[in-house]
Structures are given as C-alpha cells and as structure tokens.
Amino acid sequence: MKRLVLALLTLAGLVVWPQAAGADEYGAPVCAEYGYSAGFRDDALVKAIAIGMAESHCKTWERGPNPDDQGLWQVRAYPERVAKYGDLLVASNNARAAYDLSAQGTNWQSNWAASNCEDRGNPRCYAYWMATAQDAAQRYRNDTAQSAVSMRDGHQEVFTRGADGQVWHKWWYGGAWSGWDSLGGGQVSSPPAAVSMHDNHIELFARGNGGDVLHRFWYGQGWSPWYSLGGSITGTPSVVSMRPGHLEIFARGTDNQIWHKWWYGSTWSEWAPMGGGTVGSTPSAVSMTDGHIELFVRGPGGDLLHRFYYGNGWSPYYSLGGGITGAPAAVSMYNGHLEVFARGTDSNLYHRYWYGQGWSEWSGMGGGTIASSPSVLSMKPNHLELFARGHDNSVLHRFYYGAGWSDWSGIG
C-alpha cells in the first residue's frame, strides 16, 4: 500500500493541504485528518490518533480479529451503528462513530483495548504512538501557545500554560524581561487569554479541565483565584474590551460554532451562540474603535474568516482567503488600523492589514518557521510585539517600531 503523500498547493501566497485521503492510504496523518473533521480537538485529537494507530495503523480497510471490528478506530459494526453512521469501512463514518463512542474523546475505556495499555514498548498500546500522534496533530492545533497583553504604555506581559498545567508569566517594564513566574491557583487545560480594559488591570481567561471558561484578574494588589464562567468550549477563549468597563469573551463551542458572553460593568450575561456557521479554530477578537469589534477565525476550509460588530448587530462571515493553520491573531495599533497574523501550512508566518481603504494581500514575514499560532499586542501607536512558540518550546519574540520588523529572538 502506498503511504500518504501530501501535495502542496498555493492559495493567495500561502500553502494549503489537500483534505481527502485515498482509500488505500494509511498512517497517523489519515487518522488526524478524519479525526479532526469528526470533531476531535487538541489533546483529544492526539489520543484519538494514537489509539487509531494502535488499533489499525490507521488503515481505512482494516478488520480486527473479530471481523465486525472495522476501519481506522476498529468500531464494531453492530446493525444499529451501521444504520446510524453508514459503512464503517468509510473513514469519515468510522471517525464520526469513534467520536461519539469515545464521548468526544474524553472516555475511550469502553470500546478500545489500546486505550487501557500504557506499555510504551508495545505497538498495540496507544502509549507507543503518542509521539507520532503529537506530530500528526500539530497541523490541526488551534490554540496559541501564549497570550500577550499591555496594561499601560511601555508594559507588556506574556502568559503561557506550563508543563505542570498552571499558568506562568513574564513581563517587561521598559528595561528587560523578568524570569518566568508561576501564577499558581490550579491547573487549566488551555493556554490563557489576557486583556486589559483599563490601566493597571489584567483579566485572564482559560479553558478549565471540565471544558468551562475560567477567569481571574489583577487589580494592582495581586491575583484573584480562578472563577468559573461556565460554558462548554474547545481550545482557548478569546477576549476583547471595546471600551473601559466592557469585556466580551468568544470561544468555539463543542458544536464548532462561536459562542460569547459579555460584561458591561455589573454582571456577566449568559453564554449565547453567535450563529453564522461552523469554524475551524479558536477565534481572535480585537477592537479598533469604541463600540466596535472585529472577529477573525480559521474557516473549515483553511481560509481566514472575518466578521464585525458596529453597534447594530453582527455581520456574516467574510472570507479573507489564505490557507492557514491554527488560530489567527489580530491587533489594532491605532484607530482605523487592523492587522491579522497567521501561521501558514508551511509553518511560516503571514499577515495582511487594513488601513481604512481595503485589505492588503497576504504576505510572508520571513524569519523562519514557528511551532504555534502567534499572539500579538500593541503597547502604543505604531508599535507591535509578536510572540510564538519555537520548535524547542521556547517563546519567540519579534517587534515593529515603525521602521520594519526585528528578527525572532528567544525570551525563554
């Protein structure tokens, strides 16, 4: 059987990957492709790929010792399952069944022996395939590895999720970067998102281990504990303030649509769906003027989608083209300016911008490849700070001061 060959195509200056695997192709990229399409995300996608490799080597045509065990995830072809999902030797059907039977990737114990085995030397155990699965899932990662915020001119702060599951941060106050410091307070299951709605004030959000959104804040005297804001999300939330005293959270729900909730100074709203269709990543929200929000997200086809709020309701999604992987990052460095950054499927960074008359074309930023979606902030007009994870898991940083971009440099 031939191995999976991924041919690069070009779209608007970025490369995109074909979405269909041939029926005789196999391996972790096949499980990644069909698992992602079925709904597996983030760590659940990694484990799904590993289990698929242990069960069938991710062969669409494979049957187990029991001939009723079929396909990528060896789903048993009970008549009622076939009636619900169709032929389980069809990869997309097998993936949808595995997604439902594993409780969206949260509970594999009932149907897959490979999920109970921790022997890293045994290829029939999911643990054997975890490194392979991590590599295959990387293209479908939706979250930024870090979040950056400025709560006053000359200040910037970077937050990330550490290997211990806690949030860590480091900061710059005009002279040098601090070391990394843990915020403590308990584990989270996504990288954090940070925003400031007025000077000396930071609000921090992350996905909790139960899929809810967690929130904590800094008012100059120390950090609050985490509080749950409910919800059921995948990936990292995005948050924006379009005027002092206002906060709005956007997150991709388990239905792959964007949901939001907001704070207008006294209490939080309930979570509400925004409609408009399904999306393929965590969103990025930015405000370039009071009362105005711009929302960006990767579309299901890999293009960049954009919608906006000008006080009278939300626009539909418009495609800005491109072929991106992971979540975009948007910023405004002065009124009327928008800039959006995204990692292409070649792992290089691309951007396009709006200066009041229309959108530029996509252009590559050069400087080398990165291993995560970017994050970006502006701490004063005509000034941008850009962050991404390097291939050694360090945080990389580059900046723009009006006369061109610096090179990437590591900040640890």
TrEMBL record:
The Transglycosylase SLT domain is annotated at 33-112
Endpoints of the signal sequence: 1-23
The UniProt keyword set, sorted, is: Signal
- Specify the superkingdom: Bacteria
Name of one Pfam family that matches: SLT_3
Q: Does the keyword Phosphoprotein apply?
A: no
Q: Which residues form the PLL-like beta propeller domain?
A: 147-411
Q: Any idea what this protein is called?
A: Uncharacterized protein
Give the organism, scientific name. Lentzea tibetensis
What taxonomic classification does the UniProt entry list for its organism? Bacteria, Bacillati, Actinomycetota, Actinomycetes, Pseudonocardiales
